[in-house]
Amino acid sequence: MATLPFVTPDRKSANHSVVRRSIDLGRRALGLDSPTPDHSVAKLHGDEAEAPGLNANETRQLRYVRRMGTTGAVLMAIGALGFGAQPVHQNPTQGLRILGLPARLGAAGLTLTMTGTVTVVLAWLLLGRFAIGRARDGGVARRLSRSQLDRTLLLWILPLSVAPPMFSQDVYSYLAQSEIAHRGLDPYELGPRPALGLDHVLTNSVPNIWQSTPAPYGPLFLWMGRGISSIAGDNIVAGVWLHRVLALGGVALIVWALPRLARRCGVASVSALWLGAANPLLLFHLVAGVHNEALMLGLMLAGLELAMRAIENTDPLRGWNLALLAAGCAVITMSSTIKIPSLIALGFVWMALTRRWGGTFRALVKATALTGVVALTVTLIVAFASGLGFGWVNTLGTANAVRSWMSLPTSLGIFTGFGGVLLGLGDHTTAVLSITRPIAALTAAFIAVRMLIAVYTGRLHPMGALGVALGAIVLLFPVVQPWYLLWAVTPLAAWATRPAFRIPTIAFSCVVSVILMPTGAKVEPFQIVEAAIATILVCGTVILVTRKILPWRAEAGAPTAPADRDAYAQSS
Fold first, then answer.
1. What pTM value is reported for the model?
2. Choice between 540 and 20, residue whose per-residue pLDDT is larger
3. What is the pLDDT of residue 531?
4. Rounded CA gap, 3 and 334, in Å?
5. pLDDT level of residue 5 (50, 70, 90 thresholds)
6. Among the residues of 398-428, which ranges form H helices?
7. Fewest CB atoms within 10 Å of the CB: 305, 424, 528, 557?
8. How far is residue 121 CA from its own chain's centroid?
């Protein structure tokens, strides 16, 4: 595992003297010997060597996988015309002969979306065979090229980017809260119903549970949303499109930053992009679902890349390097003014910078001053320039009204309360939650502090420590939505390579991606059963028909001989 200054293996020899000085300074400052890996998370990371491209047979299989995923995305987009998270008013497909057909097909329309969802997930799993690139039987490990992965990702994103919203109705809350800000009212004091009125076209599309709650999002997001409202007005379709443009911009930043961060950690860029950017959770919830996590994660990762580029540079941290570091800290702070959890990334930049400057108390003070001044300045600029102030600090717990089964402390409280009912002791769920949630918060804080110390002592790369800390925060959060998992998955995709991380992440991503309904709301049980049976039959038939042309078995895509090293140049 790499130690600070966090250089990848191919740069170690060129920076040997810098590494030596850093280690010596750390020893003198902390009274420690050379830092050793934090074995509690060391099993998650391993460097990935470069690999040759795919051979002719694998390239042909990749084309089939790409078409399979694109077909699934198109089916999802068609089914969403009837079973997406459509607005209550201004539904552009309602009453149309062709575009309105999926809404009139009943369970058949839902089957289109569910079949498309499972097809995309299966195509993503098959794509993983070419992204991970493991050698078998003594052969050569091969991976698809970055351009091949980019083309695949683009083809899968395009149908979802023009489809109606799916899996969540949050975008309608964004529109209503942005309109409140556009009218000069305080979205941190008033919800859509009291601010816009019960009969307003934007209020009616907001789920009932959120119609009277203030906005929990940061001022930068609502500032941008206010600009969208000034353009789209009460036009829901135009507003959704403009918010999706923001989400796609965030996805573009993720695709830009993730491979660069992966290379700093000694991880293959295509494997990081496959797990982080091509993940069905990102496609379904950030692109199709139009969640502002896309912009939050994109800015956070872009800021981390800028900051780590400056910190890992062998040149002194002054002049252009210092400006690059400040820019990275500023971009991370901007991401936190969309949603606050990304601010923790600045803490790991702070620790990495402290270690780069020698790990002494003076270095800690200097790093604290630099990151603190940048963060405070950016936050003040956004708060006052937007005119929204700091009211969002008081609304961060708005989502706690939901009891999420994916949250460990919430699930424990619910199951305990249910057990009390069965035993005739009464429903004590609320009382139990008042105990489990604070304990979980303290546990998450402890893990985050431990990861910060691991970066300070050089035991972990900042990307790995950040991913572990965010993973703990997500799992121990009072409310966990499926797309929250991407808070941890995207940074860890650039660092964690071991099966201990990848296998559970792949399994969980697949399961969560296929169990959520595309409407973002309740669907009749009989429709779900009918659609599920039809989806199983269709996808089973596809697997049977394509068993000889797609790499369903490990042997189908396995490397065969070292002579294939140059095959990619001839076949792609």
1. 0.85
2. 540
3. 83
4. 28
5. very low
6. 408-422
7. 424
8. 16
Count other Cβ atoms within 10 Å, centred on residue 225: 27
Task: Establish if 565 belongs to a structural domain.
Answer: yes
Q: Is residue 255 part of a domain?
A: no
188, 215 Cβ separation under 8 angstroms: yes
- Terminal CA-to-CA distance of the chain, rounded, Å? 34
φ/ψ of residue 112, rounded to 5: -55, -50
Higher pLDDT, 70 or 99: 70
- CA angle (295, 298, 299) in 5-degree steps: 85
**For residue 401, how far is the Cα from the chain centroid?**
23
pLDDT over 50 at 53, yes or no: yes
Q: Which residues, in sequence order, are CB contacts of 496 under 8 Å at separation 6+?
A: 44, 45, 464, 467, 502
Domain that holds residue 136: 56-165+517-571
Summarised one tens digit per residue, pLDDT across range 520-554 is 666 777 778 888 898 899 989 989 988 888 888 76
Residue 431 lies in a domain: no
- Residue 17 burial (C-beta neighbours within 10 Å; 0-12, 13-18, 19+): exposed
Of 119, 226, 130, whose CA–CA distance to 559 is shortest?
130
Tokens for 79?
């089914």
Q: Helix or strand or coil: residue 125?
A: helix
For residues 489, 494, 495, 497, the Cα torsion angle rounded to the nearest 10 degrees is 80
- Within 265-337, residue ranges assigned H as helices are 269-276, 280-281, 293-312, 320-336
**Using CA atoms, how far apart are residues 179 and 275, in angstroms rounded to an integer?**
36
* Amino acid, single-letter form, for residue 84: G
Q: Where is pLDDT greater, at 143 or 45? A: 143
pLDDT of residue 308 exceeding 60, the answer is yes
Do the domain assignments include residue 288?
A: no
Concatenated DSSP letters of 319-331: THHHHHHHHHHHH
Number of domains in the chain: 1
Q: Is the pLDDT of residue 393 over 70?
A: yes
- For residues 559 and 360, give the distance between their C-alpha atoms in angstroms, rounded to a whole number: 50
Is residue 244 within 8 A of residue 170, CB to CB? The reply is no
What letter would DSSP give residue 286? I
- Give, in degrees to the nearest 5, the angle at Cα 437 between 174 and 177: 10
DSSP structural state of residue 164 = P
Query: What count of other Cβ atoms lies within 10 Å of the Cβ of residue 535?
Result: 21
Count of other CB atoms within 10 angstroms of residue 46: 13
pLDDT at 241: 92
